[in-house]
Sequence to fold (206 residues):
Amino acid sequence: MLHEKVSLWIFASLSLTLFALLTFSVRYGLTQHVDFSLLQWLTSFKNDRLDDFFKGITWFGSLWILLPLTCLVIARLYYCKYNSLALFFGGAFLSTIAISYLIKYILARERPSSSNPFHELPLDPSYPSAHTAQIVAFTLLLWFAMVIVSFQWKGVILVVWLILSCFVALSRAYLQVHFPTDILGGTLLAFGLICTAYAIYKEGLA
Fold:
């Protein structure tokens, strides 16, 4: 138990430290060359089938899908008498959303510009990627919840959501609506925040 708590705090601290360093680099334009080079490289894979696939898969990082799923998980946890776990799940997920959007509007990074965009550009700022942060946060929370309730098929479900998370992250860059560092930032932020929240939750159970 002690080893798990220490590991959580170390992982959370490392993720948030890397996020802070990346944010500094993005803020002062240190990643610009790498970002544009990677986006340009991704355009070489463009075709109609991949366009349709990524336009569909990217919705799995949207709140239109993740919020209803979160409500379903919370309702199920309450039904099974895991009240504190349900509050943790909902609170941690909503906090991740709020913090990611707060950082977005503080930094106000512009979206990638393209004369031939693959997808309509969202109106909110670019860094960090909220789609990525949201699906990574949901996946981690789902895993932690399944571990606590000893859900039988947790390994299979984790693999499915990890694959979805990777595809959603890739879709944001493929569709040219995010820079690669936006996606990395969203991933690091979600890992850091959810691991911190889970470590605090576990402390409360001790």
Q: What stands out?
A: The chain has a mean pLDDT of 92. Helices lie at 2-27, 32-43, 48-57, 63-79, 83-107, 130-149, 154-174, 180-205.
